[in-house]
């Protein structure tokens, strides 16, 4: 049984009300909701897959591609917006060549836009792999990402040695 089948099988009842909870649980377990998972949910709830897709894409809590190795949560809340978070978003977009699903062209980074990270006093803020970084500028962001890339290259070198 696949993880998605297990999630579906664990439900006492399969009604329309289960659609969003099922998608949430699948995303929690798998990190995203795949086409195949939507197909399984549609089959279990006896509804067209287009309807499952329509509901899933309506809510921006769902992701449809796996997360990259590094997750950047970019705050676009009011305090961060006032402190030029849009410029940071544009910079990330350019540097990482972000695709529509928020993943970088090389698949190593995922950028997720969030409403407020609860750290408004250090706006503009991102959370990179769970760590907060505030008072950011494009230059500081580059230094941060350069650091991640250097660490990765070193880890790669150690693995190869
Ligand atoms: S608005 Fe960005 S941390 Fe609150």
Unreliably modeled segments: none
**Sheet of most strands:** 4 strands, mixed
Question: Would you identify the CATH architecture of the largest domain?
Answer: 3-Layer(aba) Sandwich
Number of strands: 4
Query: How much helicity do the residues have?
Result: 40-55%
Note the beta-strand portion. 5-15%
Count of alpha and pi helical runs: 7
Shape: globular
Q: Count up the domains.
A: 2
Bound molecules: FE2/S2 (inorganic) cluster
CATH homologous superfamily classification of the largest domain: Glutaredoxin
For the termini, the CA-CA separation is 39 Å
The level 1 CATH classification of the largest domain is: Alpha Beta
Output mean pLDDT: 93
Query: What structural category characterises the helix and strand content?
Result: alpha+beta
Radius of gyration: 19 Å
CATH topology of the largest domain: Glutaredoxin
Pattern of helices and strands: HHHHEHHEEEH
Strand arrangement across the biggest beta sheet: 2-1-3-4
